Amino acid sequence: MVGSSSRLSLVYKFLAGGLMLASAGCATQNSIRDGTATAVQTVVDLPEPDPRMTVGELVDSYYLGPRDKVDIYVYQLSDMNRTVEVDSAGEIQLPFVGTIKVAGKTAAEVRDEISGRLAQDVLQSPQVAVQVSGALNQRLTVTGAVNSPGMFGISGRVTLLQAIALARGTSTIANERIVVVFRTIDNQQMAAWYDLQKIKNGELSDPNLVANDIVVVETSRGKVLLRDVVSTLPLLGVFRTVDTVTR
Q1: Structural domains of the chain, with CATH
Q2: Across the beta sheet with 82-85, what order do the strands follow?
Q3: pTM value?
């Protein structure tokens, strides 16, 4: 029978091995960081996509899409004043003007479309205002070693650190040295990796993200192993207590 001192010696050796592997976790191989990925094009800086897909300030350069909400005001016709949501086909329905295709158009272009239709046979010199009240078609996906992975609707400018914050930060098993951002440009999937620790420390700038980017925080294999080792401690403690009592 193995005594308590021998059992504790084995436990300490086991924990020491776990700590050594955890410290080596930062050396985890990553094909995107190492430039050996074949399914995506690895780049240092991700290029900007078509402006109709960018996440920017809600100004005239913002292009509407499904699930966006739009405020419509017609000053001479209060019955048309309403907030409408762009449907999955990229269209909205309005009284007096019918169906309007708005996906891929700016608020100013939609305003001109409504004004033109009303001027045909409803109003003379219609005064129309169109404002984007909710940019819900813009989404980011944050996954991997974060506390709350998921797809997040966003409006306005978003950086990598802000995206991580949307997912409630990195988890206890995250390798913050490797955070990969995937982006599709002209049907070509590209990827770039960032060192989140250096960004947090101000050594690197915090990159801007665009709609449909996918952020993946790598899991540290060493931290996972250490977590699994530590999770066995209560059980080992029970064995030690039983051994002490029955000796």
Answers
A1: 29-52+138-226 (3.10.560.10), 59-134 (3.30.1950.10)
A2: 82-85, 69-74, 128-134
A3: 0.53
Q: State both tokens at 66.
A: 């499904």
State how far the Cα of 126 lies from the Cα of 7, in Å rounded to an integer: 86
Amino acid (one-letter) located at 102: V
Report, in angstroms and rounded to the nearest whole number, the Rg of the chain calculated over CA atoms. 27
Residue type, 174: A
Q: Which of 180, 135, 165 is nearest to 32 (CA)?
A: 180
SS3 for 242?
A: helix
The residues, ordered by sequence, that sit 6+ positions from 194 with a Cβ below 8 Å of its Cβ are 160, 179, 180, 181, 204, 207
User: Can you tell me the distance from the alpha carbon of 47 to that of 21, in angstroms, rounded to the nearest whole number?
Assistant: 37
Residue 24: partners with Cβ closer than 8 Å, 6 or more residues away = 222
CA–CA gap between residue 172 and residue 220 (Å, rounded): 9
Say if residues 129 and 60 touch (Cβ distance below 8 Å): no
With a CB cutoff of 8 Å and minimum separation 6, the contacts of 242 are: none
Strand partners, 72: 82, 130
Per-residue pLDDT of the chain (247 residues; tens, 9 = 90+): 445 555 545 545 555 555 555 554 445 666 656 666 554 556 666 666 555 554 444 344 567 888 788 899 999 888 889 999 998 888 999 999 999 999 888 888 999 999 999 999 888 889 999 988 776 667 788 999 999 998 887 766 689 999 999 999 999 889 998 898 888 877 788 888 899 988 888 888 888 888 788 999 998 877 767 666 656 655 544 444 444 443 4
The stretches of 41-84 forming alpha helices (DSSP H) are none
> Looking up tokens 């169109």, which residue turns up?
130
